[in-house]
Design goal:
7-stranded mixed sheet, 23 strands, 15% strand, binds zinc ion
Length: 886
Amino acid sequence: VFYKLNGSRITLREFWWETKLFAWVGLIVKLFKIRLRGSTDDLAVDSLRPFLAEERNIRPEVLERFAPTIQQLRALGFEAPVWHDEEDVVQATRNTLATLRHESGRAWARVQCRTNFGRVPAKVKFFTTFISRTPGGFIATGNGKYDMAWPKTHDTVRFRLLPAEQVWAMHQQRMTAAVQPVTREQLLDAAEAYHASLRDFHLARGVFQPLGDEELALYPAAAPADLNQSNVAPPTAVALDPATDPTAQPPLAAAAPPDLMEVATLDELRRLQNKKVNWRFSIALLAISAMLFIANSRHSEGKQDWEYVAIIVGILLVHEFGHYIAMKIFGYRNLRMFFIPGFGAAVSGRHFNAPAWKKIIVSLMGPLPGIVAGTVLLVVALVLHNELFFRIGLFALIINTFNLIPILPFDGGWVAHAALFSRHPKLDVGFRLVAALLLIGIGLIVPGTRFLTFVAIASLLALPMAYKLATIVSELRQIPAIGVSPDSQTIPTATARIILAKVRERFNRNLTASLAAQHVARVFESLNARPASVGATIGLLSLHASAFVVALVVGVVAIAVHQQQSSRHNPVDPARYVVTDREIESAGPEPTSPRNVLVARFKSIGLARAHFSGLSPARPASRFGQTLLVAFTPTESAFQRDLFNQYEKVAEDTFVETQKMRAEVVVTCNLPSTGTGKQALEDLELYFQGSDWRLIPPWASETDWPSEQRALQTVFRRLVKELQAGGLSTSTELKQLWAQLTAARRRGDTDETTRLQVQIKKASEDAQAANQRRLKEQYGHADFIDKWAEIQKSENIAKRQARLKQEIAPLLGRVPPEESDDQLANSGFATRVANGRCQIYCNFTHTDTGLTAMTRWLFSQGASDIRYVIQGAATAADDDATAIER
Ligand SMILES: [Zn+2]
């Protein structure tokens, strides 16, 4: 009776002995009860007796292998060997044992040659074990590798690769007085008892398991001729005991030797085909791979962007679900969905009769639904103005469109491969090669796609294999009626044998049975993936191409529409509160200077209106949209405090503008870019440029600033602007000198630097003089220009500022007395921003009168959609004071 091995029952320690690096593989094997193909030093048979063999029936090459060791042992006092020859089709292994009794009877040697045919080249192990019998068990000393565990009754030590005579010396030391000698007649029984103790140990812990009906049905076909009489040959038929039937030939030696590699491969193939979906494994695979994927994405993002990760995972799930459903409909089996950390996700499944057109549809069914879903989301997002939907939709569109690129391993690549490049091995390998090189290119050029380089390297390494398999497929296509799977799930054995022969011919190095089985399956699958007809190919490829084009167009249009929408409802507009000209009102007497202004912004215009009408008629106040601006003289602090406390409970933002607490104002609006709108913006720009000179602002009333004076001022202000520019930026001579100066400084040439600085000073004076001459010609007003130039020459900045204020400003317009004009802005700037809106940042001497006057003026100049925000900001002077106090 043969047994099969159950890998999940093997202990981690044994896995560790087998391959230290892959002990963790053992952990997975145990966790998921994966069946491993393997063989063991301990023979997986019920009894050794059926395998007793005559020396003349042992293969000569095997005998040759044994000869030196046997010679050595004979020299050490061991008697002639008894032979066992076992061929284990289940493990695809041949074990030959030579058992030699020591003349003392106190020990015997078991020389074992174990050949694993489940791989190419076959793996051979050769080792010797010295065994002594004790009342409770055995003492064993060997030079094999640690392979399987042993029962507690055994006292086993192994000295790997130690020469046999040294192992014998060690064993002699380890033999105790309790050793029971074995007579020549007892030798076989003792050897059998040793085997039985190991067998029972492995059976008890489930490592050895009786063969199931499936295996029993399969193996007789490959077993020696005498087993072939019945398809359910009882394994006892092997038990031709030469002891009871001396005329019987040892069965395995006489029969034509079965091709163990073929048997093992067909067994693997059978297992591959019969593999059932293990739900525990599938779900664990999806969950664990998703967790790794999430961990990897989060790590590479560097911040906790859960929203991003959730969107990616969601999009991938929808995409893969599309593949999954298509595969399910076409009858694929063993479907498994999993994430690939750092790359994406995939669905695997098996179908042996899927023609190319089905494969193409399966590949397209991932991206196409994703593109449709992305398009729907984008439309919904643009209609509802939903930013999250827009992000998800755009992301889905991008990921799925990218997947249509005809480069392996993307879906588009598989479409192109199935439709065109799988038709010839050279085309196939050429396509893979070009795809890998393109991927390396993308990975190197596009930031954040380094993983593509690794994918490409992996596919380059697999290129020789792909070429060999494609060649096998094209050779086999020449054979008519090579065999089709009757049910899409199984490979006819005759066909599998033909394919395997080809596979062994091409892959003559490092081929294991399980690898060979996978190759056979892949070749069979490709063989049955009959290329689509010309019509179908053109149709499917045009579907692919048009999906790609449509997705690109949808993406471009959606982005354009979204951009236009966001320029209309600019989410980054710093001013948030809307004000219309009807929502600006003032009440009470004219406010006096100096004063404090209580600024309170209410939740709604209605609330602001109610509080405004509740104010005393004697109180100077303004309402600006949903904001109230109430004036107090510095002596009215008690009233101010009361109202502040009252408003703070109901308003969203409340503060008092004082000398030390300025209100900073941002106003945005749409101002026409032609006519009065353009003029208004220029007025604002010019005004804010000279605002520290306390000029009359553009929003001052007509009585303060008659139109003819306004026209004159505009000319002067432009003039000042050009004078300030000084014509320096247009002088090519200066530019060259600056470049020379930089070079000289870099060289550390101080003499040259000094010389150039003098030259530059001269040149800039010349440039300014030339500029002034030009401006005099253009504007006239020579006395104004001369005055300005003369003031510029004074060395002291403060003095210069004061003179500009006293001597130039009056020429530009009426200068109000300090603190008296309550519409002035202290500083600010006005500009037109990218989306066509104007932004004005400024602060007023008194925000209540300044802001309302400026806004009313803006409306009169054609401004629309005016928004504002008012924030209290401590002035620098105040900060300094507190800093000193501390
Ligand atoms: Zn896909």
